[in-house]
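User: Batch of two.

Assistant: Item 1 of 2:
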Amino acid sequence: MNQANERLHSVRNRIAEACKNAGRPVASVKLLAVSKRQPAAAIEALYALGQTAFGENLLQEAREKQNEIGLPNLEWHFIGPVQSNKTRALAEHFDWVQSVDREKILRRLAQQRPDHLPPLNICIQVNIDRERQKAGAEPEQVAHLAGRAEECPTLRLRGLMCIPRLTEDVMEARHSFRAMKLLYDELVRAGHALDTLSMGMSGDLELAIEEGSNMIRVGTGLFGARPASRAC
């Protein structure tokens, strides 16, 4: 078994075990492979093993890989901060944008999504721990953004995403995940047709699944340590 296969097998086993412990079907959790700073060959290796959804944080790097890789049914997610001058490229070349956090970005993505493409799948990024240095909408802003997103026929609101505070305190991490699930459930009860709660990474995917995540974003667990950043 090669290294890519071993890592994918290990992550899938972790997800399956976490789902079993949480009393959930394994099919209820989607795996997003975070391929930031990974070469196109690493993406192709995982694709050959059945992994089709990949997440990128940096637009220029992602576009280079998209131009290099010509594989069918490959699903591209953008999960990094969204700047206004990048929205056209995101609207034209991605299947999902998970890091929408303000109305201006919503409007630009909606206006710039090409007519020949299906609606752009979006998640609202929530700054669930209210960290001043971190992107994301404040929890009390999310319902308003959800309503605005659902008014745009070129967008499809799928759910919420978060990057909780980095901590080794399990109870603190659990509190963040649980707060996200409560917010998600509130929106569903209010009539928003959500199906995605994107939270949890390599180090905490079990806890995230236990607290209700249905999309796990894994980078190092699938690819190993990231290569050093390329020189500009």
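Item 2 of 2:
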Amino acid sequence: MIAMRQPVENGYFVVENVFSTVECEHLLNAVADPSVVVRGRAGSRHLMSQSEIRRVASDPRMLRLAHEALGTEAVPYRATLFEKSETANWLVVWHQDTALPLRSEFDMPGWGPWSLKSGVLYAHAPTWALSHIVALRIHLDASTQDNGPLRIIPSSHSLGVMNDAEVFALARSKTPVNCLAGRGGVMAMYPLLVHSSGKAQISAPRRVLHIEYADSLTLAADIRLAIS
């Protein structure tokens, strides 16, 4: 494994050559069957029910990277395939990832609004809860300057949960960084890192398997993450 890391203080790091080309093809085949995985316009959500996704989420290489980011043991709980292509060339505005899947609803300050997505209960979470989370993004295709890579504002995760106006103001005042990685590379990022993604300028696909980890499925008494 060849490490190409940014300091964790920046809110992210990239490690190249974690997975081989053969492993990337195997993962793509695992999520290609429409009878198993339901695809939306931007990809597929709630993939932890698939055995191959659970296997790669618990791969020692992934657990080691999650441990490095969280500073403790890590448990995978949610997986999403993001897919840009010639027919689905989408963009995402600047935002933070603040919604968490939860086992049951509760009434506690800082949580909400609540929603139900494909049978999974979600709530927007406060800063303290999101500090227990990291996402690892497996690049099943190379992420380049031309295919709509993830853009981030370094160290913005340290500002806590922001509203939309604060996020957009920050993005206007800072110089973004394009997060590039070769095929098989993995990017680690904290959910409060302000990020966006523009449209691809080329027709080649950009597919990323985004797997989220927590230091425990139980964030606090009566607050437990759902596996999705």
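The two ends are 28 Å apart (CA to CA).
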